[in-house]
């Protein structure tokens, strides 16, 4: 346990050093921290505030101001359903409902208990010609239907099972 805790902070230290522990580099530091941990863990935020000698409220202020930062742990696979106008008109809601039902998730509960999947809705992805669009782990899938999206989800689940066996 002690090891995993120290290695957790070691990774934050490497990122801090990369930016010369400069308070003016807070945003890129937080971006790297999020890339490393997939979210901004509370204890790491506190650690950064001490290391950079800036107040925790400043660190939290930046982290909550930018929409791409997240303070919640996310699942291994992040599925984003576009709910911009073009996708909405082409029934993106049906895709969201099908995924929520399959994964047992809802608006207040976006990550599965096994931390395998996180479901999010996002504003226009800039791929309206492909509406309705779904992004799975940064890859855009266009012209989706609930059936196609569930098939995609099944293939990810199967891949995960194969990895375990
Ligand atoms: S509205 Fe979905 S990609 Fe533009």
UniProtKB/TrEMBL annotation:
Entry binding sites for [2Fe-2S] cluster: 82, 87, 124, 128
Enzyme class, spelled out: oxidoreductase
InterPro entries linked: NADP_DH_HndA-like (IPR028431), NuoE-like (IPR002023), NuoE_dom (IPR042128), NuoE_N (IPR041921), Thioredoxin-like_sf (IPR036249)
Keyword Protein biosynthesis recorded: no
GO molecular function: 2 iron, 2 sulfur cluster binding; hydrogen dehydrogenase (NADP+) activity; metal ion binding
Cofactor(s) required for function per UniProt: [2Fe-2S] cluster
Alphabetical keyword list: 2Fe-2S, Iron, Iron-sulfur, Metal-binding, Oxidoreductase
Keyword Ribosomal protein attributed: no
EC number: 1.12.1.3
Entry-linked Pfam families: 2Fe-2S_thioredx
Organism domain of life: Bacteria
Record text on cofactor binding: Binds 1 [2Fe-2S] cluster.
NCBIfam families associated with the record: PRK07539.1-2
Protein family per UniProt: Belongs to the complex I 24 kDa subunit family.
Descriptive protein name: NADP-reducing hydrogenase subunit HndA
The species this protein was found in: Oxobacter pfennigii
